[in-house]
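Morning. Coffee machine broken again, so started the prediction first thing and wrote up yesterday's gels while waiting. Chain of 323 residues, entered below exactly as on the submission form.
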Amino acid sequence: MPIEGDLKSLNLSSVMQLISQENLTGVLKIKRRNEVVDIGFSTGQVTGAFYEKGEKAERMEKYLVRSGIIGKNVYELVEEIHQETKRPIMNIILEDKYVTRDQVESLIKFKIQEVIDEIFTWNDGAFKFEQNSIIYPKSVIRIRMNTEGLILEAARRFDEWSKISKSITSGDIVFKKVERPELKLKPSAEEERVLSLLNGHRSVDDMIEISGLGKFRTYSYLYRLLSTGQITMAYAKPTPKKIRQKKDFSIKALRMPITLAIAVVVLILEFIIGNYFASNKTVAIDLINDDFYVTDHAHYQRIFFYKHNRMPAVNEVVEIFEK
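Came back before lunch.
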């Protein structure tokens, strides 16, 4: 039977469990306004995930740079090789051993979990399962992740997220370090990474963008640092308002509507004026008038009589004077 519906009536966890239990292969497509998510399955196991918001979708190669696995200069070199040889970028990265296959697989799994974490927070959205579709048919990496494990981890993070979001209410917040040597705390490597990126100007969203830790982990480490007093809120960046683009005004575009409007007005006026005269004014036009025939043209009648030995008919008089 087809698997499709709305997340308001059936939550994501139930949908994924159904696909897993039935050992189905295909792609689960979920859409909410301008957000689109694809989750690939092979015999019930998750093989990949894709998230796009508007026109923004991050490629895995770019994420390798942001996460620090590949240096920016190395990636630029890879792009040059790609331009010259037309080989796929990911193939170059793996075959030329810029990173190991294990590193890429680990990163893909991390991104899959991050996508599922995101849509676990959705309360609405339409979904449809396209059976026997493949999410990344040309991928050189084959991933298989246990669906039940992903669901359990996403549920755990969702519970934690409700607590985190009460303290960090917006991605526009900017945090700053607090020097408290008396605490004698030893941050984890990930927390140290987050602390190193704080400069008094970067917002939470900026930190997510450059840390390579993803949304949940960035929020989570910031929450721990905030809870232990190692950071505090400095200020919140103002959210830029979207400026609506003004449409170009063109006289040419108005030419046809104006012409039609004038024609309609003329027709209406003609109709009104015609009705007025028809109902209020009777214009009598006597084309063949007896006085005209008898009085004004008596002289012509006499001449006609002498010539033809008879009086002219009315139409004969009219024809002469209309010539």
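The longest strand covers residues 45-53. Going to sketch it on the whiteboard this afternoon.
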